[in-house]
Amino acid sequence: MPKILVTGGLGFIGSHTVVELVNAGYEPVIVDDLSNSQAAILDQLTKIIGYKVPFYKLDLTIEADVQKLALAEPDLSGIIHFAAFKAVGESVGVPLKYYRNNFYSLINLLEAYYAKPVNFVFSSSCTVYGQPDELPVTEDAPVKPAQSPYGNTKQVAEEILKDMIVSGGSKYKVIALRYFNPVGAHDSALIGELPIGVPQSLVPFVTQSAIGKRGPITVHGSDYNTPDGSCLRDYIHVVDLAKAHVSALALMEKDSFTGYDMFNLGTGKATSVLEVINAFEQSTGVKLNYSIGPRRPGDVEKVWGDVTKSAEGLGWTAELGIDTMMSSAWAWEKYIAQNPLI
């Protein structure tokens, strides 16, 4: 079976991708420093897939340790690189934390496997578009100034990857997947989003508020130029997102694919913050306590994706809707309330 290194593989998207890799006949190997994840997720994955995936607790920003990893795991056919800090708001307050982690980890990894024929999937983000001039945003849209240090790390990381491919010195093939807003959980309710501390993203804060872990929800801004005044986003179920990584590997395995490409991953539909709250209430029957607050630094007003290229190039489309996203996220929240993992 082709062996795939999954960095950040115990995180939210990474853990779901490990499951889909196994389902597709790949052999995942997980690397995670546990700075934003829990070791207990490895046991949860074992319950789903039936065996324990090889795991390295390793900080990818330490070059010597990454070189040791390359010696221990020399025969990879692919790497899926999730290991990055990702909270937009936090990145505004502590930018150096984001620049150090997100750049060092990427460069160390690329250098360690530079001479190998590796298919590299990069976890990018729709934040590379900033506030687009036209919506839905396509992959050909100009990359605007980043609205946050987090967004800037994704922009520059894509440039690093493109420059590496153009230089011609490596044997890499690279696909950058530009995520919109992943939410939801596996239908087993055994894995899902597990933020440490106060969630920076909407849906885990919603579920934690609903179950009593957090206080009322604050909707950051009600005066945006959107139908209901709250920010618009393209929310995508994490299982759909995970399957797209398998599709990206399959594409790069074809001799016809060379070099570098990028794809939007979303549903192509815009959903507002207030609509998410309503969808949660409708799909779960749980009433939420929320209030309107000021805008949050770094937030983009509205963004959703054109996913035509993903459908045509990857042969992939999102299948699960907002109600399933909310009900699965709630099932996961209830599971961890009864089975504490932290």
TrEMBL record:
Key words of the record: Carbohydrate metabolism, Isomerase, NAD
EC numbers on record: 5.1.3.2
Catalytic reactions of this protein: UDP-alpha-D-glucose = UDP-alpha-D-galactose
Keyword presence, Isomerase: yes
A GO biological-process term: galactose metabolic process
Pathway(s) served: Carbohydrate metabolism; galactose metabolism
One of the record's GO molecular function terms: UDP-glucose 4-epimerase activity
Alphabetized Pfam families for the sequence: GDP_Man_Dehyd
UniProt domain NAD(P)-binding: residue ranges: 5-327
Residues of the signal peptide: none
Cross-referenced SUPFAM superfamilies: NAD(P)-binding Rossmann-fold domains
GO cellular component: cytosol
Gene3D superfamilies reported in the protein's UniProt record: NAD(P)-binding Rossmann-like Domain (3.40.50.720), UDP-galactose 4-epimerase, domain 1 (3.90.25.10)
Cofactor(s) the record lists: NAD(+)
Annotated InterPro entries: NAD(P)-bd_dom (IPR016040), NAD(P)-bd_dom_sf (IPR036291), UDP_G4E (IPR005886)
Coiled coil location: none
Assembly, per entry: Homodimer.
UniProt xrefs under PANTHER family: UDP-GLUCOSE 4-EPIMERASE
Family: Belongs to the NAD(P)-dependent epimerase/dehydratase family.
Descriptive protein name: UDP-glucose 4-epimerase
Record organism: Mucilaginibacter myungsuensis
